[in-house]
Amino acid sequence: MSRQVVRTSKFRHVFGQAAKNDQCYDDIRVSRVTWDSSFCAVNPKFVAIIIEASGGGAFLVLPLHKTGRIDKSYPTVCGHTGPVLDIDWCPHNDQVIASGSEDCTVMVWQIPENGLVTSMAEPVVVLEGHSKRVGIITWHPTARNVLLSAGCDNQIIIWNVGTGEAMINLDDMHPDVIYSATWNRNGSLICTSCKDKAIRVIDPRKETVIAEKEKAHDGARPMRAIFLADGNILTTGFSRMSERQLSLWNANNMEEPMTVTEMDTSNGVLLPFYDPDTGVVYLCGKGDSSIRYFEITDQAPYVHFLSTFTTKEPQRGMGYMPKRGLDVNKCEIARFFKLHERKCEPIVMTVPRKSDLFQDDLYPDTSGPDPALEAEDWFDGKNGDPILISLKNGYVQGKNREFKVVKKNILDGKATKNTENSSPANKSASPTPSIKSEAKLEEILKEIKSLKDLVCSQEKRIIKLEDQMSKIAI
């Protein structure tokens, strides 16, 4: 009788743990829009969640420590005239976030350092170029101020956010709706999945498709495709029998997949979240109540199932914390922010270790917040690998550089002026310190006013409740 040999892996015993109730974000009206994005974006400072909003689109931006019940009057980012479909934090500035909407625009926002005090309706820059709703937003991993957007007009636009210009327009490569678009590790290529069931690898600066696989998955439901650190491509999709599949492809030869893993029969789109440092990929199905995770290796069968984390409630969306936001002292290798119908629940993935020392094997140097090159260099054809940082002493938040938009068109100066007035955090750096201190003073006064308003409303509520109590006592 042959004994089955269990593959050794340091991630074999990874376990998930949901946060306690007091560490969740409660009473949030998560968006009900029918779109297969994650609805949540996270960085080491803030969690952003797309919410239901009457008369337009909005999303919440909460400091990570702002747990508990979120008041209905909590300020939002609310400049879009249609529902927000996708949001993404800038990897090089933890206060800058981009949003795409049904109103066909992309907006870039700068959040004040300590979070929102009043609702923000004026973005730093509005990027207009799509003719239909914009459902995909993703920042370049290594170049500062380079942003990709994909819309239901079947085109991809790559923007220089620093000037507000559309630099590259890929409008003839996709015959149908684009389901996903992701960068490779150094941002020289993008990989897309489309409603025509094809996966395409595109060199955006040469505006050419360098690899294509038709019918990557036979099913009609949406696919997702992401680059792995070694340049291979991982896709999630559906078979003809509606079975969910996970496939691995060699980008240099996409005739046949390297491996296909069949999972279950369900119609929820699988959102893949990949950690290039550990080679672990997490699959979160929309409408599922579980997170499956796999280890990707360079030896057959390449994709190794690790485990499944299951909760009772189905997930409406999912946020994924960058590696520099994790607690290395607790051997935390991933942190998710799971959206329920009315709350956001952090879920921590941990490798059980007895030692309190820093675990070098779990935390190789990871992508840091510094860009490898400027937008102009990238558009000129240069590439840069991510600038890595060590997590040995934990990630220390540096000072974020002021985000500015330099319009080339003089007529656009007016728009820039308005956005600068909308929030003190958006004001350009000024040579006179008095203006800076005035801005700071204005921000403090605003916060005091909002707190006084809150206290006043609570006092009125207390009087009402006491009045009700006295009636009951009689």
TrEMBL record:
GO BP terms, alphabetized: actin filament organization; neural crest cell migration
Q: Give the transmembrane region(s).
A: none
Statement: the UniProt record of this protein carries the keyword Iron: no
Pfam families listed in its UniProt record: DUF1899, WD40, WD40_4
Segments of this protein annotated with the region Disordered: 415-435
Domain named DUF1899: residues: 4-68
* Keyword tags: Coiled coil, Repeat, WD repeat
Q: Organism's domain of life? A: Eukaryota
Which PROSITE patterns does this one have? WD_REPEATS_1 (PS00678), WD_REPEATS_2 (PS50082), WD_REPEATS_REGION (PS50294)
Record flagged with keyword Repeat: yes
Give the GO molecular function terms. actin filament binding
PANTHER family, per database record? CORONIN, CORONIN-1C
Q: Which family does it belong to?
A: Belongs to the WD repeat coronin family.
What name appears for this protein in its UniProt entry? Coronin
Q: Which organism is it from?
A: Gymnodraco acuticeps
